Amino acid sequence: MTTHAAASTPLGFGSMRRKEDARFLRGAGRYLDDIVLPGMLHAAILRSPYAHARIVSVDTSAAEAHPKVEAVITGETLAGLGLAWMPTLSHDVQAVLATDKVRFQGQEVAFVVAEDRYAARDALGLIEVEYEPLPAVVDATHALDPDAPVIRDDLHRTDNHIFDWEAGDAAATDEVFSRADVVAECDLLYPRSHPAPMETCGSIASMDPVSGKLTVHTTTQAPHAHRTVYALVAGIPEHKIQVIAPDIGGGFGNKVGIYPGYVCAVVGSIVTGRPVKWVEDRSENLMSTSFARDYHMHGEIAATKDGTLLGVRVKVLADHGAFNGTAQPSKLPAGLFHVFSGSYDLRAAHCSVTGVYTNKCPGGVAYACSFRITEAVYLIERLVDVLARDQGWDPAELRMKNLIRPEQFPYRTALGWEYDSGNYPKTLRTALDLAGYAELRREQAEKRARGELMGIGVSFFTEAVGAGPRKHMDILGLGMADGAELRVHPTGKAVLRLSCMTQGQGHQTTFAQIVAEELGISPDDVEVVQGDTDQTPFGLGTYGSRSTPVSGAATALVARKVRERARIVASAMLEVAPSDLEFVKGRFEVRGDPAASASMAEIAMAAHSALELPEGVEGHLDATCVYNPPNLTYPCGAYVCVVDVDPGTGQVTVRRFVAVDDCGVRINPMVVEGQIHGGLADGIGMALMEALAFDPDGNHLGASFMDYLLPTALECPSWELGETVTPSPHHPIGAKGVGESATVGSPPAVVNAVLDAIGVRHADMPLTPAQVWRAMQGRPLRTDLSVT
Ligand code: MCN
Ligand code: CUM
């Protein structure tokens, strides 16, 4: 593990300790549940015990009679206000509180507002709901059976089909396959998983009955997007809505969407005239907020007999649960899945994705995923391994032979995406060298001879982050530009206001470093303001690792605007033409006379003073910027995982994990490595432990951390990290996003390693001891269902 000297604060890029940590380590973070507003009430949600049932009646009279209950809201109450359904971010509608039917176990049925949380919970037990249970559709592979119960009769659907989506050229791909010497195919399930942040989701709504202003404190990764959704759904004008995200205890995609509890809290506040707090518990979080993955994939890969990859053909069945999508770029129903040609120079590729409804919780995209790239990378990286195994080729060599070459960038993929930059062979070579790949293979052969199971897994990934260019994506019709505002005070201290929202990524530090790099002031002198729509410019927030690609670019550009304003002021101070000034180490120097110079602090003071400025030049240095990304950024990485498997129990131990990431220029290498450490732990969790499974009636079998297992330090080795740096050519500071890279790239490395150890062609994640043991017997399980 690398250690970082963080003693002195750099004036720009470089490892420095996170400014926010002093506060967090002292327990001075202020999370949603820490906030107590005067007169605040507390809410709880009654949830459906059934996965699919008709609601015959809801009797709230006993709950309303509870002395501490202030209001009971049902689907009927909301229907009267036109709020029983809300739009999802994927062109569907979701029930806020069920009226006609419940469609997944844990669905919201009634909302109780009371004097305290205990009373609210108690009163839930006093509500009588009569259900008429219906057969449930749990297995996505049977969702389109002619006799499958129809889930979305509210949409007058006659089946559970949501969409068909295709990408790539089918005819060209078929042609490539017809000429191929070898084809390998595989069925893979990427099981349903959950972001499971440490802090669950919640909201405090406060409608001021006098001013008509709605203030919402909420756990959101995208405060401005939430404000617009509230405006569109509730019909409250945007300037009368303030969304405030306090400290966020982890998001991982879980806090992108708007959940029914948030809308109910607003209604609760309108009805009672008092602030209403709703915070979910762990089971509610796991059962009813946005899951991820749940992709059933059939993939084929074609190659020549000398190991040149030709093409990939994929069919996907996507289980979206009962309502489609918490967050999905709306022009792309399968998210960014169709970057599944991965990091290889392929002639042709084609995929078709069919989305279906099932009686499971909705969501479907977000969990450190870059919107389905996780699934895409898993698919191609497993197919390459399966092909290598079938043909007796070395999986690392097969990858090296087929990676996109450095001179091919910018590289247009068979699916039409333009990868901006990379040196893939160098990245893979660095990882193989760091791991000592050849030596590991020798060790493995020796161990095999002794009957010991050791496995080596390789993966290479290309991520696509920084949503996004208008031609590709929007959310609710909103383009994905983000704003930045930079104010420089007379003493040279600065305030940066951003639309993105940190949830643990260290934005308070890293964005201050971007300003520091551009202006030559200390990052300690830059305060980063986020998470309050009244205080920050509009933008779509933090997900898809877009903060650095989009808000980071906006920050660099706004700082450059400030710098150019400073140049004019400095030229007046130093009595030379602006073009005679050079910006060197944070000072403007007169060309040829470095003794004549001015620092940013001196210039800031002068800008606010009575200094005579040239005609038409405003004083002050403040500037604003809106950044429209011209393309996504494409970070990449090469991972090598080494595992040992206990032949008796199937228990997997991850012995080593080497990760070489290329995210372009690193603003704060220590923060980047922290992001990668977290993502690698995520990957081990996905590969070995995590899956939300259901029984045939749709009962959720992972509603607590007793059943939904998360990785801890015990399961993780000491990470071995390396890097390559290929700047993004279109990003002002050459940086690419990195927040999801390791989560995307690591699961196939772990799975490839385990299957390499046990000599099995494929078994679905999570590779629990039971699953590994069964795979060794030739009988791996379907891991999404309790009964197979
Ligand atoms: N960074 C850097 N140099 C780069 C790239 C990034 O120094 N070349 C720094 C950034 O300045 C930022 C951090 O690394 O401080 C992550 O940056 P970026 O890749 O832009 O990702 P975002 O800030 O947009 O964060 C979102 C991403 C996503 S989508 C999920 S999901 C996820 C992730 O971040 N959720 C997280 N990492 C997380 N980390 C924590 N602790 N908590 C979460 O909820
Ligand atoms: Cu896809 S999880 Mo992150 O983008 O918030």
TrEMBL record:
Cofactor(s) essential for the protein: Mo-molybdopterin cytosine dinucleotide
Aldehyde oxidase/xanthine dehydrogenase a/b hammerhead domain segment(s): 26-135
Top-level taxonomic group: Bacteria
UniProt KW Iron keyword: no
Residues forming coiled coils: none
Cross-referenced Gene3D superfamilies: Aldehyde oxidase/xanthine dehydrogenase, a/b hammerhead, Aldehyde oxidase/xanthine dehydrogenase, molybdopterin binding domain
SMART domains xrefs: Ald_Xan_dh_C
Protein name: Carbon-monoxide dehydrogenase large subunit
Species in which this protein is naturally found: Pseudonocardia halophobica
